[in-house]
Design a protein that fits this description.
The protein is an alpha+beta fold and 1158 residues long. It contains 6 helices and 70 strands. Helices cover 17% and strands 38% of the residues. The longest helix has 77 residues. The N terminus is likely disordered. This is Laminin G domain-containing protein. InterPro entries: ConA-like_dom_sf, Laminin_dom_II, Laminin_G, Neurexin-related_CASP.
Length: 1158
């Protein structure tokens, strides 16, 4: 029996099975197709990811390219800023688009995971992604095109700037050429030796070349038949100081006043109104004046004079004058009110050569003239060898090439006498400068350079020839070989130098129209780079080139050249680089004194060091070793006198040979000693076992001594000390940079032309270091009404009372004038601000043996600066050192133990304005630098040296101004930041670590270190009791503009003030909440005033001020508010000041326009 199986009522099982098979095959085929589709989409997605990645890379490349382009575009003018901004916007859009693509890709990956359900949307999404990828590519191309446009624009602008730069260069050259011509004209006028004749109506004023000091000389030649005459008058513009030579009944009188009363001395031995030439010699040494008359013609000619002397009233000793003083030779303008002690004001006769402090006064190089002036017969001159000339160090002479010129053979001979260390003696060159020859002095040694067109030949002498004695120089060249012979004329000692040029050229092809220069070169011109451009100061004679003699005074082109030679009796020396000058020994007995004058721009340096002398008998044998330079240390019995500038203070140390050295430190009560101006120092040995030190005319300071025995110094040095003395006496040489003059011991002037030895000392010359004073007003009136110009009050006279209420009544008290809405800044205790100047610093002394093996430094630091010096200590020669610096915002440590330096930085920026703890732990060769105990850098010094050998002085915050340090790179400026909690520990060899106890409240020295505040912002804070001398000397003139911002907690106070002794000047001040701008041009006070709105200026907010002075008109603008004022006298439109600008207040003794003091 058969059975039939069914799946349903109508479908047999077999048919159902067949249908299932077909369906299964269909599903299998669909699954395979879907698998292929998934694989294809996966491949498409991989390609899509690659394209997105490429777009991202292009975006990064674009960002880098834009950064580079932006750095280039910083030099482009501001009118391209809009295009740069557009480019940055396009780049930002491209970057944002790429980021959007990445975000969409994330969503796309999610869609792939559900591919079976969302496959229908996949193709649309891929198309959208492709479209998005194309957008950044377009933007990238657009941005690149913009950058290219900007580059083209920059090139176009630079091309337009090129003619302007050429015009600026030409203008600079023209100005230099004009200045050179003016200088030459003045020197030519000074060289005219024709005497000036006056019948009583010839008056001339001159520009005095003079330095303040305790010593002055006047030499004057006169011929007259009038018994009463004023020959010479020099008067201060500000004070009662003056010098005068006056004839009274035919007898010569010398009068002077240096601030404490008139001194007068008469030469009664001779009357000089006899119609013959006489030479008048007058000098002043402190309070003592001397005068002598030397007859040059007539029956008394050849008579040796006996000088007459007298003293002025005791007190002041410095003649306080400058280049704006009144100087007259032969009469005085009626507009000048002379000293009452001088009787005459006119002169009749002839005035010949005149000298002030050894410098000639060119009688025809006058400042102003009045009346009829004529020439007269030249005064008798000292005979000099024909052709002997003297160059002043600022000139030169040019001569034509000899007619007979052999290119293959050259000879140059001349004699010279100089103290110059570096200077050009002779120079000649062809137009293209391929052929040239020069003779020069380099560190006192003769150097020859020459090139025949194929290579340089050069050689130098081994000996120095700048000792002030006559030398004979002969240079002979035969083709490529040159021989220079230098002979000392006095001793006959000879030195020979041989040099040969390179290459094959044999001849020096100098053309007939080309010049040969002696003593220097014109300022404008192209010269061989091997040649020194420093001009020669000294004497020349017997000049021959190729056997052709030359007299430089017969040349058509010369300047700064005068007839004769005088290198004796020199009293000034300058040091432009480390050096010294040694003089003969001196003694300092009881009731004796020593004085000198100096000028410098550096706050540290050795002015004078005197060492050696008599000692107890038991020590004399040992002391002989010092003079033989064999000693290693200074004996305790060796007396010495040390005069130094140390951080702006004068330090005088005197050791008599027993007990301990005694030191006096002096600082100016007002101003600084390293301002380039003239300053004087006086040391007195007083009775009763003491000595006194006086700087300028300020109060003396006395110090006791252990005995009253005479002190003898065998060696005296100025400006520094030689190496052998430094080593033998265990002293540190601190070189002086500047000028020293008029060294006097017991009124005997030291002659610098007779030094025992010197190095890098420019004897007899000194450049002006002080700021150039403004030109003085005309001495002659511009109108018919006579204006009387009176000298200012003497220095002891109190200042005039200011306009308005007295300072005592107007100055607000600390409690009554504080605004409720203002917040006074809070200062941090025991935190110190550095960086107020490049050389802001503190120094601390310590026992150097206690850091040899180990050194630990700790302190807190706050700064926003990216670079600066934090700490430095070193050996004398800087072979060993330790330094901490900020470089690119990171703390860096460097040190050297004598065999190589090592340095490294902690890779963490600390210039964020927050406090950070810095710690250095060095033990032998290994050191660890840490910041905030988190970030560290470990260093190990090279080789085997493991002990630190430094001088026991550490500088924090910066270095002194003249401190030389070349081993730690260019970052030598003081760090602008705050330091607190500075501690230093160390240990000697095989010893325990100990605290060196350095206290930042009591450093060994400090320079321009301020206080730190809790919160900081740009600006300067005044407490209401002080002031700042912002500018040392300023001339207001006709027009001036002042802009500043201020914020205050007071309703009264001075913002800015400048005025002269006559109260001409200007001032900005707050008075009862109103801002006032005062100006006085000499015709009365004019004031512009702005009254604030609302809470007023005393609201604790910043306010912007602009004050304008335009001749006699004033304008004051404050935060948009404006006020104008003008003087009733339009002719009074110039404010003549040569005085400091004070900010925040002014000294109580200073005359000012403001009603307040602080």
């Amino acid at each position: 029996m058969s059975q039939t199986v069914a799946l349903g009522p109508d479908v047999p099982v077999k048919e159902a099975a067949d249908g299932a098979v077909v369906k299964s095959n269909t599903l299998l085929n669909q699954a395979k197709q879907l698998q292929q589709d998934v694989q294809g989409n996966a491949n498409n997605m991989a390609l899509l990811k690659d394209r997105v990645k490429a777009a991202k890379d292009k975006t990064k490349d674009l960002a880098k390219g834009i950064d580079i382009t932006m750095a280039t575009l910083h030099a482009i003018p501001n009118d391209t800023a809009a295009r740069v901004a557009t480019t940055k916007a396009v780049a930002a859009e491209a970057n944002a688009t790429a980021l959007d693509v990445l975000e969409r890709l994330g969503n796309l990956n999610l869609q792939i995971q559900g591919l079976q359900k969302n496959y229908g949307h996949l193709e649309e999404t891929v198309n959208a992604a492709n479209q998005l990828i194309q957008d950044p590519e377009k933007n990238i191309h657009a941005a690149g095109a913009k950058v290219k446009d900007l580059e083209d624009e920059a090139d176009r602008l630079l091309e337009k700037l090129q003619p302007i730069r050429m015009l600026q260069d030409n203008l600079r050259r023209n100005i230099s050429q004009i200045q050179e011509l003016i200088s030459q004209a003045r020197k030519q006028a000074n060289s005219i030796k024709v005497s000036v004749s006056s019948g009583g109506d010839c008056l001339r004023s001159y520009r005095p070349e003079i330095r303040k000091g305790r010593y002055n000389t006047i030499i004057l030649h006169v011929k007259t038949t009038t018994a009463d005459n004023l020959l010479f008058y020099l008067g201060s513009e500000q004070y009662v100081d003056f010098l005068a030579l006056e004839m009274r009944k035919g007898k010569m009188n010398f009068l002077w006043d240096v601030g404490s009363g008139v001194g007068r001395v008469e030469y009664s031995q001779l009357t000089i109104h006899d119609g013959h030439w006489h030479r008048i010699e007058a000098s002043r040494k402190g309070l003592t004046g001397t005068v002598a008359v030397v007859p040059l013609e007539g029956p008394n000619a050849g008579m040796m004079p006996t000088p007459a002397s007298a003293d002025a009233p005791s007190s002041f000793t410095i003649l306080d004058v400058d280049q704006n003083a009144y100087l007259f030779v032969g009469g005085l303008f009626g507009t000048i009110k002379k000293a009452e002690a001088v009787r005459s004001s006119m002169f009749s006769g002839c005035i010949g050569e005149t000298f002030l402090d050894g410098k000639p006064i060119g009688l025809w190089n006058y400042r102003e003239r009045l009346g009829d002036c004529k020439g007269c017969v030249i005064s008798p001159q000292k005979s000099d060898a024909e052709g002997t000339v003297q160059l002043d160090g600022e000139g030169y002479a040019a001569v034509a090439r000899p007619t007979r010129w052999n290119p293959n053979v050259s000879t140059v001979t001349f004699k010279f006498r100089t103290f110059s260390s570096d200077a050009l003696l002779m120079y000649l060159a062809t137009q293209d400068m391929k052929d040239f020859m020069s003779l020069e002095l380099l560190e006192g040694k003769v150097k020859v350079n020459f090139d025949l067109g194929s290579g340089l030949g050069s050689a130098s002498s081994t000996q120095r020839h700048n000792d002030g004695h006559w030398k004979s120089l002969t240079m002979s060249r035969n083709k490529r070989q040159a021989t220079v012979t230098v002979v000392d004329i006095d001793s006959g000692e000879e030195e020979r130098i041989v040099a040969a040029s390179q290459g094959s050229a044999m001849g020096l092809n100098l053309r007939e129209n080309q010049r040969i220069y002696f003593g220097g070169l014109p300022t404008n011109g192209n010269y061989r780079p091997e040649v020194s451009l420093k001009r020669y100061a000294g004497c020349l004679r017997d000049i021959e080139v190729s056997r052709t003699p030359y007299n430089l005074l017969s040349s058509a082109d010369y300047t700064g050249v005068t007839k004769g030679c005088s290198v004796e009796n020199l009293h000034i020396v300058s040091f432009s680089k480390p050096g010294f000058m040694e003089l003969r020994g001196q003694s300092l007995d009881v009731a004796s004194e020593m004085s000198l004058s100096f000028s410098t721009l550096n706050d540290t340096g050795t002015l004078l060091l005197a060492v050696g002398g008599s000692a107890p008998v038991s020590q004399q044998a040992r002391n002989l070793n010092f003079y033989n330079n064999k000693r290693k240390r200074r004996q305790s019995g060796e007396p010495y006198l040390s005069v130094m500038l140390n951080q702006g203070d004068v330090e005088v140390r005197l050791f008599t040979g027993t007990h301990t050295p005694r030191m006096v430190t002096r600082r100016l009560e007002q101003g600084i000693l390293h301002d380039g101006r003239e300053h004087s120092l006086r040391i007195e040995r007083l009775p009763g076992r003491s000595f006194a030190v006086q700087v300028d005319e300020e109060t003396k300071k006395e110090m006791g001594l252990p005995n009253d025995q005479p002190v003898v110094f065998q060696r005296v040095f100025l400006g520094g000390i030689p190496t052998e003395v430094e080593q033998a006496s265990n002293r540190v040489n601190v070189p002086f940079k500047g000028c020293i003059w008029n060294l006097m011991v017991n009124s005997v002037l030291s002659d610098f032309s007779q030094p025992l030895s010197f190095v890098n000392a420019d004897i007899g010359r000194c450049p002006s270091l002080a700021p150039v004073p403004p030109p003085p007003p005309p001495l002659l009136p511009e109108t018919t009404a006579p204006a009387v110009v009176t000298p200012g009050p003497m220095r002891s006279t109190p200042a005039a009372v200011p306009v308005g209420p007295s300072p005592a009544s107007s100055e607000p008290g600390p409690e009554t004038d504080v605004c409720a809405s203002a917040v006074v800044p809070s200062a941090l205790d025991q935190a110190h601000q550095f960086g107020l100047s490049r050389n802001s610093h503190m120094s601390f002394s310590f026992d150097d043996t206690k850091v040899r093996e180990r050194l630990i430094l700790e302190f807190d630091l706050r700064t926003t600066e990216s670079s600066g010096l934090v700490l430095y200590m070193a050996r004398i020669n800087h072979a060993d050192f330790v330094t901490i610096q900020i470089k690119e915002g990171q703390v860096c440590l460097g040190y050297d133990l004598g065999h190589g330096n090592i340095s490294g930085c902690v890779p963490f920026s600390i210039n964020d304005g927050n406090w950070h703890k810095i710690r250095v732990n060095r033990q032998k060769q290994r050191a660890v630098l840490s910041v905030d105990s988190k970030y560290m850098k470990q260093l190990i010094s090279p080789k085997k040296a493991d002990l630190l050998d430094v001088v026991g002085v550490v500088y924090v915050g910066g270095l002194p101004q003249n401190y030389s340090c070349r081993r730690i790179g260019p970052i030598l400026h003081s760090l602008n930041g705050c330091v607190r909690g500075f501690t230093m520990h160390g240990s000697a060899v095989s010893s325990q670590v100990e605290n060196l106890s350095l206290d930042m409240e009591t450093p060994s020295s400090r320079h321009l270190v301020g206080r730190c505040f809790v919160s900081t912002e740009p600006g300067t804070y005044f407490q209401g009791t002080g002031y700042m001398k912002a500018v040392a000397s300023y001339r207001v003139g006709q027009d001036v503009s002042i802009s500043l911002d201020f914020r205050t907690s007071r309703s009264d106070g001075i913002l800015l003030a400048v005025s002269n002794k006559d109260r001409d000047g200007l001032g900005l001040e707050l008075v009862q909440g109103k801002l006032q701008f005062h100006v006085d041009n000499g015709a009365g006070l004019v004031t512009a005033e702005v009254t604030p709105q609302g809470e007023g200026f005393c609201d604790g907010h910043w306010h912007s001020v602009t004050a304008l002075k335009t001749r006699h008109r004033l304008e004051l603008r404050v935060d948009g508010a404006q006020s104008r004022a003008e003087s009733d006298n339009p002719k009074a439109n110039t404010c003549e000041t040569n005085d400091p600008i004070y900010v925040g207040g002014y000294p109580e003794s200073k005359t000012n326009l403001t009603t307040l003091i602080h």
